[in-house]
Every structure is written in C-alpha cells, then in structure tokens.
# Entry
Amino acid sequence: MSASSVAAGTTAELSAAQITAPAPVSFSIAHETPADSCAREALLDRVMGEGRKRKSSEKLRRKRVPAYGLALIARDAHGVMIGSVRLWHISAGKKAGGEAVPALLLGPLAVETIYAGRGVGAALMRQAIHNAQALGHKAILLVGDPEYYGRFGFTGNKMADLAMPGPVERHRFLALELEENYLDGASGVLTATGKLIADRQAIAV
# Structure
C-alpha cells in the first residue's frame, strides 16, 4: 500500500464496523480533518480531563504535527465523533554509534465513555498499527496499561534503556516493533522530531 492510499483511506480499511458487546453499535474510522479539531479537543477533555496536558507524553506532542496518515477518528452512525487516536514522530533514543532511532509515539487514545468496551478503541488501534506499518514505520511506543495494549503486541521488553522526558510508571512504558529487533541497542530519552506548528489549530494530516 502506498502512502497516498493510506492518507486517502480505502473502502476495505476504513469501513463501518459492527460489534455486539454489550449492545450493537455501528461506527466508521476515518482520517482526521481540520474540521474535527474542536470536537477532538472536547472529547479528550471529557474522557481524560485537564490533567492530560501535564503528562510526560504531552511534551513530545506539544505544538507538533501528527505523523502523516496517522491521525484517526471514529464516528457513530450519525457522524458524531466518538473516538480519536494520533501518532507522532519521535526519536527513540540513539544506537551505540550515535545514530537516532526514528519511531512513533501513540496517544492519546480516547473513546466516549458510553462506548467503552464496545470495540471502538480496539478498531482505532488496529487501524493505526496497520497504517503505520504500511507507511514504513519500524516501531510504536506509548505509555498505557499493559493489560489493554498487550493484546496488540505492546510489551516493555525493549524499554529498559529508554526514558520519557518526564516521570513515567515503568511498567506502563511499552513498545511494539513493526520490524523485528528494531529497538535493540536503543537507549536514551525520547525526543520529539515531528514538524512544529505555529498555533494550536488543527491541520490536515
């Protein structure tokens, strides 16, 4: 799959999903647009609270552009946003020879409370991972509950020599290698490498 097809989306990959627990709900996954900015911020405030802006991960996202093709939203059958996930360009430390280790940071992942446990978050995660791999990225890092993210292949096995630019619970510092052994030998503090933006308005991704 080409980068252009990922950015535009395909019928097979961004189609409506049907789930049945605890009750059926229809939703679709699409690429975020500038018009989604206000609804996304409101969703994040409702689900995560104002404290989300003080997290260590926010230091790697602040005033940065999300990675191309990797800002996704979920909409219900009426077109209302019910979920969001974004991925960001980072350097996962450096290798022994001093070369940077390009990777992605995932987050935040947020789903409206009434849709929790109904497959929306899982669908966003699977689409995000699929798109990242299709675009040639080698690893995705995040801070989150291992009980949840472990189902998608995230573990803390390669994180001992890596650190966030702020406090983090080590057992929640996880990674998924999209290329086997890609993070071997990586060490140091994660740094943001995404393009800077001049304001906080949403932009096309």
In short: Residues 120-134 form the longest helix (15 residues). Confidence is low (pLDDT under 50) at residues 1-5, 7-21, 200-205. The two ends are 18 Å apart (CA to CA).
